[in-house]
Amino acid sequence: MSDTPPPAASAGRSPATHVIDYRAAERLLAARDPRGAVKLLDSVLAAHPESTAARLLRARAFFASAQLRRAEREFELVLEREPDNAFAHFALARTHERSGRPEQARRHFRLAAALDPQPDYLAAARFEQ
To answer: How far apart are CA 9 and CA 67, in angstroms?
Structure first.
């Protein structure tokens, strides 16, 4: 047995605690506290790095707090795992748009609209142009 202590983010935390933290992070993001949401999600992802839902929520929190490079990285990780996730394409496009990269944004807007032709995605894709 190793003498090294468990990581602080996971120490004494149960799967139920991670679910509670995830739900609390959702509420913090809705209440416009994205940095608080990121703090909670860091421990969730330390314990469950494969959680696409937690990554997507953290990406949204990074976007809301104007941490655009970090948001981009998280959205890209989600898309590596779920290339057909229309929302992730749309959110990544918004991130590129906000970062001043319209060509990259257009590509992801169009992918989002092709995957899920909702009115918001179609309008952003600007297929007529």
So the answer is: 22
**Which residues, in sequence order, are CB contacts of 77 under 8 Å at separation 6+?**
55
Q: Output the CA–CA distances (angstroms, integers) from residue 39 to 15, 44, 57, 61, 83, in the order listed.
A: 17, 9, 12, 10, 27
pLDDT in tens, 41-61: 999 999 999 999 999 999 999
CA neighbours within 13 Å on the CB side: how many for 108?
A: 22
The pLDDT value recorded for residue 12 is 58
**Cα separation, 97 vs 69, whole angstroms:** 12
Structure tokens at 14: 């149960």
| 64-109 pLDDT per residue, tens | 999 999 999 999 999 999 999 999 999 999 999 999 999 999 999 9
8 Å CB contact between 87 and 75: no
Report CA-CA distances (Å) from 71 to 7, 11, 52, 93, 122: 24, 27, 14, 11, 23
